[in-house]
Design a protein that fits this description.
38 residues, single chain, 1 helix, rod-shaped, mainly alpha
Amino acid sequence: MNQEILYKYTKHYGNNIMVFIKLMKKRIFMCLTSIRKI
């Protein structure tokens, strides 16, 4: 029972991490491009 909940939690958490990483990469890219313009 505990393992099942843990698996579901880690799966959901992992998806959130992937989305967060994608957003961070976009943000870093935007920052780099803005710095180059200046």
